[in-house]
Amino acid sequence: MREIITKQCPDCKEDLIKSKSYTSGRTTYFWQKPWATGFFDMKRVLKIYPWACMNCGKVFFYLEDSERENIKREYETEKYKPR
Ligand SMILES: [Zn+2]
């Protein structure tokens, strides 16, 4: 049996199950940094996995833990830049 990765549903506190993939056919789930410029920032688009709650049926998207800290750091820098 494949590994089933879970976390707690923020709404009902039951099991959220991570999707096997972030793509299906031509559909890809992603989040793009609003401050990204140009095509050469290879990390401007981040893959995101859907997570489905086995109790309430809601589906949530989460950034990968490995990427979240970097994005948070970039955001902290970006939000204080003059516009
Ligand atoms: Zn739930």
Task: Tell me about this structure.
This protein is an alpha+beta fold. The protein has one domain. The chain has one helix and seven strands. The radius of gyration is 15 Å and the shape is globular. The mean pLDDT is 91. Zinc ion (ZN) is lined by residues 9, 11-12, 14, 53, 55-56, 58.
Compact description:
By secondary structure, the protein is an alpha+beta fold.
Keywords:
five-stranded antiparallel sheet; globular; binds zinc ion; two-stranded antiparallel ribbon; 17% helix; 83 residues; alpha+beta; 1 helix
Which ligands, by name, code or SMILES, are bound? zinc ion
What pattern of helices and strands is seen along the backbone?
EEEEEEEH
Strand percentage, roughly? 25-35%
Count the strands? 7
Topology:
Layout: E1 6-8, E2 15-18, E3 23-24, E4 27-28, E5 30-32, E6 45-53, E7 59-63, H1 65-78
Antiparallel strand pairs: 1-2, 2-6, 3-4, 5-6, 6-7
Residues 9, 11-12, 14, 53, 55-56, 58 line the site of zinc ion.
